[in-house]
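Workshop exercise sheet. Pairs work together: one partner reads the sequence aloud, the other fills in the structure field after running the prediction. Swap roles for the next sheet.
Pair: D.N. / O.F.
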Amino acid sequence: MLLRQLVNFRPTAGPDHDASRPYSRERRVRWELNLDRDGQFQALVDLADPTDKAARSGRMKLVPNAGRTVAIAPSLGADDVQYILGWCDEQTKPERVKAAHAAFIALCRRWKHEHPDNDAARAIIAFYDRGGADLVPKPDKWASKETVTIVVDGRPSTDSAALWQLWKTVVEERKSGGGDDVRRGLCLACGRVGALLNRMPQALPKALVPGADQEVALISANKAIHTYDFSEGLGTAPICVNCGGTAVANLQTILADPTHTFTYPRQRTRLAWWITHGGHSATIALLDANPAAISDYLDRVYTATPPRSLHEHQLCSIAVSGNVARLVVHDWIEQPLAEAEAAVQQWFADHEITHRWQDHRARFPMWLLLTCAGQWQPGVTGAQGRYIPLYDKAADRPDDLAQLLLHSALYGANLPSYVLAHVVRRIRTDGHVDEPRAALIRVALTRHPHTTVEAPMPGLDPAQHDPAYVSGRLFAVLEATQRAAFPREEQPNTTFFDRYFAGAVANPRIALVQGSQLWPAWIKKITSSAERERTPQGRNKRRAAAAALRTRITDLLALLNAEALPARITTEAQSLFIVGYHHQRADDLVRARTGRAPEIAVNEQDQPEQPLNAVTM
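Structure field:
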């Protein structure tokens, strides 16, 4: 159960996990109201610094916060201008500001009454007894909803232990109904009888929840239509005061921890994960590592001794988004950590692909697979191209792609068929195939829910005789033949690839018929160029290249008879064409680097792209 696991979560010790400051949050504070020990007004300090980008509208400080909607609910020691100073701007209603200011003063009086020896409480009440807001000069620019914190005798009032003690009591009274209206019952999370909440005591910051327009409630039932029995409040979800506060605080801690979240610009969800019983998992974190670290780790895992015992640990993960002020839970799954790590290792195995420019197979992190699903921009005048960054709305990536990939990686689930269709369409539109795209095609085809073709291998598969796969291989050989026929400085402005690739993915017949008519002339050009070589070694190399290319073309054509040569083909077959094309190209370049394919010019035109990195996000 989600709430139970959130309550049981134990965050790493740190300043953000201070149990002595319950129901608190980092907020941007614009003003600092300074009083002396006797409550005399000293200054209203503007904490904004136009020269500091991080402090242009104030500085982040940990202040009391319990979330509020339309009700008047003051905080202690720090709150909005309208609560602390009673100032009303053009955007607020004077009657409401007056009531909010009075409620704040009343809460401060309760603080002094319950803790009469507290210096901060005494000074604040003395300040209000002297006239309070009337004594403070208004700055040129201010807003009623800007945050003010009160400092007494040089010490923030929020440093007072008495403040936090009272604040915890106040929040729990508010959220449970208070007084005679307190409901008592069995808590779903801890299984004990106690005071039950009517509302959750805190909300999640909207910055942590994609799509949220306001602070987000973990559970909300403000109207009868929101509940099963048409009752208001959390009557159908009994949660005790302690568990409610703990669950929200722990979820905020988890969502704010970059080492345990996967979140990407313009993706609709944020996925957070954690291990029960204090466990850890480098394998799960590997999903967002860099390609070199992934390969190094997996190579060590495959050759290492049997892994540690993981039976007591569970992987918990939650994928969330926001809808105005509501939390949308897209996924909540618990599973044994051993199963999750096995699923992640299988994910890397299902998308590993032969690399054109390296001697090992490539595996990729989530951010790179997500990046390569967007639009490719070719370089201008010889410059290298790039993928449009994740934050750019013109990138043309499905907004649920990250959630789908992560769900498949963690639980071995299939990918919807539209993922494969999207990547194929982008490759055809962009005319660009690289290792990440080939890997994404391979895993989407391997995990297709209704595939009609055999999933491809990581590298070239001579035993794969599917017409679409063979057609992709043949297209790559025809492209290499044209390239070998012309010196680098004489390459055509529009190559065979430029002219035919986009159409060949969906209809290989036309491109391969044209290639079958053109390749003899290219072979002849390679052969004739051998006579112009000055050395016997050069002449022999050109003749061997012509013979090798002729043999490879005829061998592949032999696998395609007139009936088997594909015309209009399905999306799955199109993906096989692309994978076959990449496999042949990568195998040729790998063999050429080792001297086993002298007919392939490694340094001509087809150069490795710069490695993508997290900056593209």
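Discussion prompt: Residues 293 and 299 are 10 Å apart (CA to CA). What would you look at next?
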